[in-house]
Every structure is written in C-alpha cells, then in structure tokens.
Amino acid sequence: MGITKTDLFTAEQNELALIAKAFAHPARIAILQYLAKTKSCINGTLVQELGLAQATISQHLRELKEIGLIKGSIEGVSISYCINSEKWELVQGLFNGLFDQLNNSCESNNCC
User: Fold this and answer.
1) Are 70 and 84 in contact (CB under 8 A)?
2) pTM
3) If we measure between CA atoms, which residue out of 12, 75, 79 comes closest to residue 43?
4) Which residues are 111's β-sheet partners?
5) How far apart are CA 66 and CA 89, in angstroms?
6) Which of 14, 24, 42, 95 has the least CB density, counted as fewest CB within 10 Å?
7) How many CA atoms lie within 13 A of 70 on its CB side?
C-alpha cells in the first residue's frame, strides 16, 4: 500500500492547509468577520446579515466548526456561534510562523 499524500507533509503543514482551505471562501471570511465584530451571534442573524440562504450559511458554519475556528452553543431552538479563541491563537501562530519564515528568506535579497 502507498502512503497518502498528506503523509508526505508535517502535521503543521497539513493543519495550515486545512485552515487555509477554510479561509478560501469569501462567505466563510464574512462569517468570521461578523463573529469577530459581534463577539457571538445566532445563525438566523447571519442569514439576514450576509444575504445567503440558511442552508448555505449552515454549510459554511459546519466547515468552520469542523476545523475548530468557531464553536457553538444551543440556546433554545437556536445555536449561538462565536470565535474559538484558543484555536484562533493557534492559527495566528501558524500563519505568523509561515510569514516570518518567508520574510526572512527574502531579506537577504537572494530571491529569484
């Protein structure tokens, strides 16, 4: 049996790729921005705020929740979502590490 392609990369590289994939859709960026601005929200509020269908919002929320960027709590018949601050700090660290590494490699002007 061959190895999967993700086995060729470090856990950090795979994690960063999953997070980048979540950021790759403008609706998910808009959801994250709205959650950051409001500190929490109820799913129905997102439908009104973003103008997308409930099913579409739910799909994007599920994607963000699966990788841990957001968390939700049930309040009656609604779910209130917010940014998962612990995961967000990890995400910041991963991206900052990547950007720092890239910046440092080009500081010596040895880039192509």
Assistant:
1) yes
2) 0.83
3) 79
4) none
5) 17
6) 24
7) 28
**Quick one: which of 48, 45, 82 has its CA closest to 65?**
82
User: Tokens for 76?
Assistant: 């009656």
**59-88 pLDDT, tens digit each:** 999 999 999 999 998 888 888 999 999 999
H helices, E strands: number in the chain: 5, 3
Instruction: Using alpha carbons, select from 21, 13, 7 the residue that is nearest to residue 69.
Output: 21
Question: In whole angstroms, how far apart are CA 48 and each of 6, 20, 28, 106?
Answer: 38, 26, 15, 44
Cα separations in angstroms, 27 against 14, 20, 38, 48, 51: 23, 14, 16, 13, 10
Question: Cα–Cα distance between 43 and 1 in angstroms, integer?
Answer: 44
Task: Please give the structure tokens belonging to residue 56.
Answer: 């579409």
Residues found in the chain = 112
The end-to-end CA distance of the chain, in Å, is 39
